[in-house]
UniProtKB/TrEMBL annotation:
Domain of life: Bacteria
Pfam families: DUF3048, DUF3048_C
Biased composition (Basic and acidic residues): 48-60
Protein name per Swiss-Prot or TrEMBL: DUF3048 domain-containing protein
Location of region: Disordered: 34-64, 175-208
Coiled coil: none
Boundaries of every DUF3048 domain copy: 60-189, 213-326
InterPro entries: DUF3048_C, DUF3048_N, YerB-like_sf
């Protein structure tokens, strides 16, 4: 039976519509981009497909670095997942207290936490790791616009609830944990670029068995342990422990003295402004490794560059094996 030209055009249009609808449905079922990851980049989301397919070195896309904000008040200890971190930053927060930012690149823990809120300090701090995944449990309304404008993939328990869970042994808010393997981009086989540069220590330094670092309402103590090949970490007079590995040790400790400015009118319940540690620029630093202390400087010329450490006469100080603890201490 012959089909008229108008009817043929109508049938063709219907066929095109059905094919497009079927393709969209299949793409949705496959996770948005064919890799089981979130598509789009609105609100600090995952990079677009074109960005993922064109890494600078021409190879397949790398896994993004993961940064988890971790609570360290008494109710949150012992924490989970710190032993797997490449870097643990100690940040000053309200009331002279501190909070941790654990950076994961070479390996991921099964679980990390307890997860707590982001701070304005995090925005510039994590920029040095490309486009990292920042894992947190919320932030002050004043800094949310800053977080969304930053080139960071933001993940909270509201935006990706399947990656989070609450433990039943602690009260809220100290019982929220994340499974890093369920975060955006972590199904890629290629590891991120290294976030630390290890190597032999330069000559010199001063023999050091212990170093205490004080914040206004928090005290950290690092004790050299030849048997561990690292520094045992104590916090407020007690050994810091993790659930997965027991006592926390650091291969290298960096006391990085930074300027601190007032934040975007973010105040705690006592009316104190949230401090912002300035991590772009340069300043003094003391690096502890191999049972010795090296006084020198830190430098980070721009937000997209990693922080480097040098002796007073300009020799680069690489880090040792094991986690690196960086304490952003007000100068």
């Amino acid at each position: 039976m012959a089909v008229s030209r108008p009817a043929f055009r109508l049938l063709a249009a219907v066929a095109v519509f059905l094919i497009a609808a079927l393709a969209a449905t299949l793409l949705l079922l496959r996770g948005g981009d064919g890799n089981g990851e979130d598509a789009g980049r609105g609100g600090g989301g995952e990079p677009t497909r074109s960005e993922r397919q064109k890494p600078e070195d021409g190879g397949p896309p790398r896994r993004p670095v993961v940064v988890v904000k971790i609570d360290n008040v008494e109710e949150a200890r012992p924490q989970t997942g710190l032993s797997a971190a490449d870097i643990v930053y100690v940040e000053p927060v309200e009331g002279g207290l501190t909070r941790l930012a654990a950076v994961y690149a070479s390996r991921l823990p099964e679980v990390a936490g307890p997860v707590r809120s982001a701070r304005e300090t995090d925005i510039a701090l994590v920029r040095q790791f490309g486009r990292p995944v920042l894992v947190y449990s919320g932030g002050a309304p004043e800094i949310e616009p800053l977080l969304r404008r930053a080139p960071i993939t933001l993940v909270t328990d509201k935006t990706r609830p399947g990656a989070y869970f609450r433990g039943n042994d602690r009260p809220i808010p100290h019982n929220l944990y994340v499974r890093p393997h369920r975060l955006p981009g972590q199904n890629r086989e290629r590891a991120p670029e290294p976030v630390t540069e290890s190597g032999a220590a330069p000559a010199g330094g001063t023999r050091t068995d212990t170093r205490t670092v004080d914040f206004r309402a928090a005290r950290y103590r690092f004790t050299w342990s030849p048997g561990d090949g690292g520094w045992r970490v104590s916090f407020d007079g007690a050994p810091l422990r993790t659930r997965e590995a027991g006592d926390v040790t650091a291969g290298t400790v960096v006391v990085q003295r930074v300027a601190v400015r007032e934040g975007r009118q973010v105040r705690d319940s006592g009316g104190q402004l949230s401090p912002v540690a300035v991590t772009v620029g340069r300043g003094e630093a003391t690096i502890l490794r191999d049972g010795r202390a090296f006084d020198g400087t830190w430098s980070r010329p721009s937000g997209g560059e990693k922080t480097t450490y040098r002796t007073g006469d300009g020799r680069r100080i690489p880090v040792g094996e094991g986690p690196v603890w960086v304490l952003l201490t007000p100068r």
